[in-house]
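Lab meeting, item 3. Inverse folding demo.
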């Protein structure tokens, strides 16, 4: 029987270099905590996971509430990465007889394929450990991988403990390992903290294993980006950019058309069908779905909304928690607020705001309107400047506009009110009573023209005043 793959994910550190009260692994990249990316990869390789928590343990644990099958181990105080693994091993009740992955929780770009390659390297080499390394252009604070004259890994030296010569080594430790469970357990208990930081370094286990004539392999990865650990807010921003780039690359490969993909942000839950077109500087978030042939952007934000096939969202629109039907058009500069539905072929034009409103198939609200709590039938026309007065300061009331109604420009519809099927509203009306089907509703002062008024007025002005 194949032994289970276990993973210990290190997430107890404070993340001092982030200058933030929030624990480092809970900082978000592309809308998700860093730790979750690592946990996703563990799930992909089907590892049984122990998360080592410490700094703000409760909030880290809480952020994982939706994830099943995790075990938590509390490291208190945090005495270093080696100590964290000791604590993690403690939580694995029975002797781990198989491989144990040890992963830093701050490496969100990690790929499952790398962990698989790492595990098979351990297996084929028959070694005690295998670690991920990469060639860094500026090795900075990374631990340096030390190799003997025969090229085999002999240890890792932390930058703060390294000699000047060792600092010149460009192969660095990514903090991603797989160990033989037994050998890890028997070696790690002998760790000491007599180093520059007074910590128990996990990295020292490598040298200790080699000293016991065990073999350690390093998997040098081609794409160092994958191993990037987040220690500063600058690194967080860089990693986030990579996450978005990976996302847009996958969509492009799947036949989605993206204009200036480097300016487009698409969340992890968003679905975009092949043949949809996303234009520059557009943000798609939450559970948004964009169907084939739809076009969104430029400069739009769509959150938790469905944009059906062939719909067009023009420049600078905000759409949230709503549905836009097939071949409908929105914008430019429209605001579609939650619980709105724009049905097939309907049009919402510039400077129009919808809230909890259904605009029926083929209906149009082309300019400058507020439509709130309204149900509008098919093929209605809502003239420029129409406003539903849905709120009297206490309660919200509904407006119903039936099929084929024509609401003239600058009309005020005081809710609750119903405009019947095919009815007309004269421009500039204030409508406070229902308008029956087929009727004309006029609610404005009648216009009066006074012939000759203007010249009479100017004559009056020329007469001497106050005699
Ligand atoms: C570590 C490695 C270094 C490697 C680098 C790669 C050690 C001693 N050094 O350094 O060789 O090049 O990662 O990014 O391992 N953590 C705990 N408990 C602790 C300390 C840390 O759980 O007591 C966790 C942190 O939350 C973090 C991870 O371990 O997720 C790594 O810790 P960090 O402080 O970032 O290590 P580095 O100094 O970057
Ligand atoms: Ca780190």
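The presenter then showed the designed sequence:
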């Amino acid at each position: 029987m194949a032994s289970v793959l276990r993973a210990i994910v290190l997430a107890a550190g404070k993340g001092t270099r982030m200058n933030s009260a929030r624990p480092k692994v809970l900082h978000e990249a592309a809308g998700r905590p860093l730790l979750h990316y690592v946990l996703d990869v563990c799930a992909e390789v089907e590892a049984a996971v122990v998360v080592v928590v410490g700094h703000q343990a409760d909030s880290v644990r809480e952020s994982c509430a939706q994830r099943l099958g995790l075990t938590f181990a509390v490291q208190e105080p945090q005495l270093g990465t080696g100590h964290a693994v000791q604590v993690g091993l403690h939580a694995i009740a029975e002797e781990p007889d198989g491989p144990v992955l040890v992963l830093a929780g701050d490496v969100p770009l990690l790929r499952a394929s790398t962990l698989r390659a790492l595990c098979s390297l351990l297996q084929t080499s028959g070694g005690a450990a295998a670690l991920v390394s990469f060639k860094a252009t500026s090795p900075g604070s990374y631990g340096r991988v030390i190799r003997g004259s025969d090229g085999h890994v002999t240890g890792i030296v932390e930058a703060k403990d390294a000699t000047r010569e060792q600092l010149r080594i460009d192969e660095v430790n990514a903090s991603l390992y797989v160990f033989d469970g037994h050998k890890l357990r028997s070696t790690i208990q002998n760790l000491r903290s007599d180093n520059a930081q007074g910590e128990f370094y996990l990295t020292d286990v490598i040298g200790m294993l080699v000293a016991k004539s065990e073999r350690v392999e390093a998997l040098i990865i081609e794409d160092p980006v994958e191993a990037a650990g987040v220690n500063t807010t600058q690194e967080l921003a860089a990693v986030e950019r990579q996450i978005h780039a990976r996302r847009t690359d996958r969509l492009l490969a799947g036949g989605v058309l993206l204009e200036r993909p480097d300016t487009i942000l698409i969340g992890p839950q968003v679905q975009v069908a092949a043949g949809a077109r996303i234009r520059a500087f557009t943000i798609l978030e939450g559970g948004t779905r964009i169907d084939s042939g739809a076009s969104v952007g430029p400069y739009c934000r769509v959150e938790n909304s469905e944009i059906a096939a062939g719909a067009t969202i023009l420049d600078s629109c905000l759409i949230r928690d709503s549905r836009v039907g097939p071949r409908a058009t929105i914008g430019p500069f429209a605001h579609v607020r939650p619980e709105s539905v724009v049905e097939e072929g309907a049009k919402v034009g510039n400077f129009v705001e919808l809230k909890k409103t259904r605009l029926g198939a083929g209906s149009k609200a082309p300019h400058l309107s507020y439509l709130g709590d309204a149900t509008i039938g098919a093929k209605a026309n809502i003239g420029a400047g129409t406003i539903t007065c849905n709120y009297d300061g206490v309660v919200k009331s509904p407006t119903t506009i039936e099929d084929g109604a024509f609401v003239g420009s600058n009309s005020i519809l005081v809710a609750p009110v119903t405009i019947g099927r095919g009815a007309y509203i004269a421009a500039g009306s204030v409508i406070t009573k229902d308008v029956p089907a087929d009727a004309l509703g006029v609610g404005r002062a009648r216009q009066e023209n006074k012939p000759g008024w203007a010249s009479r007025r100017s004559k009056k002005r020329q007469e001497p005043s106050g005699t």
